[in-house]
UniProtKB/TrEMBL annotation:
The keyword Nucleus does not apply. It is found in: Cell membrane. It comes from Magnetospirillum fulvum (Rhodospirillum fulvum). The keyword Lipoprotein does not apply. The chain crosses the membrane at residues 89-112, 119-136, 172-191, 221-239, 259-282, 294-318. GO terms for molecular function: branched-chain amino acid transmembrane transporter activity. This is Amino acid/amide ABC transporter membrane protein 2, HAAT family. Pfam families: BPD_transp_2. Signal peptide: none annotated. Keywords: Cell membrane, Membrane, Transmembrane, Transmembrane helix. It is a multi-pass membrane protein. Its main location: membrane. PANTHER family: ABC TRANSPORTER ATP-BINDING PROTEIN (PTHR30482:SF17), HIGH-AFFINITY BRANCHED-CHAIN AMINO ACID TRANSPORT SYSTEM PERMEASE (PTHR30482).
Length: 328
């Protein structure tokens, strides 16, 4: 994966530093809405993790999935089902178990769908996503259309001692921030590896990769499983944040929104979809606060950015950085 120009890298680091400082300094700027904005920023970082995981499929491997939200929702449902009813679940136990469940489901769905391509892959993943939606929507054990409540937020425990309670807003915020940065670092490390180079080549020309002796199906299945598992991690955090899960988490509409974040930010860049998630969610928050017809404004924003910036916001930043580097 190509390196990020220094000005863009410094900008991204500055944004992460601002996110890290917000719990302690944000109250000075937004005293009345500090708690609300902290929750909002944590929620956006969770969605940014989902967008980055989808970018591995769409922007890198060339797999456009409309079933990505099914794995996001499955991660949330796994937490809700595995959590004890009246005590905090130990995150060291429930998180690996939830990710294992999501990874197994992703491996199965990927095995059945990865040999298709183009519109056929889109439709197959959409079908699997809707199957997951109706499975939980019609299941009494999963709470049906009402969903499930998580009575106690998970905690980090070692040897019976509670080290960190995620019910504490600051603790949860910093955990999400750490996993947000960790998700980006993991995906970037993967894409810089020999495996990542093959996956990226598959997205450019699958037939040529096959001609070089690699099996594209195996690589695409591995990338699909990794991306969906990271979406499950985001869903796990979303369920922990809101203490509630319902079938809408698995809806294809949620997948569509994640796809718009990827397109807005810039496909194949990893950091672009994260920026796209922030722009998308902050714009939605602003539009919802001003008009009942906010969907029209959101649609106009998405169309405008796509037409004016076909490579997304990340493409704009990269172009500006390169132009600046050429100036004497």
């Amino acid at each position: 994966m190509t390196s990020i120009p220094r000005p863009v890298a410094m900008l991204l680091i500055a944004l992460v530093v601002l996110l890290a400082l917000f719990p302690s300094c944000g109250g000075l700027v937004f005293p009345a809405k500090h708690a609300f904005l902290m929750q909002k920023l944590a929620g956006i970082m969770i969605l940014a993790m989902m967008a980055m995981s989808l970018d591995l499929l769409v922007g890198v491997t060339g797999l456009v999935s409309l079933g990505h939200a099914a794995f996001f929702g499955l991660g949330g449902y796994a937490l809700a089902i595995l959590s004890p009813e009246y005590e905090a679940a130990n995150i060291w136990i429930v998180l690996p178990a939830a990710l294992a469940i999501v990874a197994a489901a992703a491996l199965l769905v990927g095995f059945l769908s990865i040999r298709t391509s183009g519109i056929y892959f889109i439709m197959v993943t959409l079908a699997f996503g809707q199957m997951g939606y109706y499975l939980f929507n019609d299941s009494r054990a999963a709470g049906g259309s009402d969903g499930l409540s998580i009575m106690e937020t998970p905690a980090i425990e070692i040897a019976g001692r509670t080290l960190l309670k995620l019910a504490d807003s600051d603790s949860f915020y910093y955990l999400v921030l750490a996993l947000f940065v960790g998700t980006y670092a993991l995906l970037r490390m993967v894409l810089n590896s020999p495996f990542g180079q093959v996956v990226r080549a598959i997205g450019v020309n699958e037939n040529r990769v096959r001609g070089l002796g690699f099996d594209p199906v195996r690589y695409k299945l591995a990338a699909f499983t990794l991306g969906c598992t990271l979406a499950g991690l985001a869903g796990f955090l979303a369920a922990a944040q809101y203490g509630f899960v319902n079938p809408t988490m698995l809806s294809w509409h949620h997948s569509g929104e994640a796809l718009m974040m990827v397109i807005l930010g810039g496909m194949g860049t990893l950091f672009g979809p994260a920026i796209g998630a922030f722009v998308f969610e902050l714009a939605r928050f602003g539009f919802e606060s001003t008009t009942d017809h906010w969907q029209l404004l959101m649609g106009g924003l998405v169309v405008t950015i796509v037409l004016v910036l076909p490579r997304g916001l990340a493409g704009l930043l990269l172009d500006l950085a390169r132009r600046g580097g050429k100036q004497p």
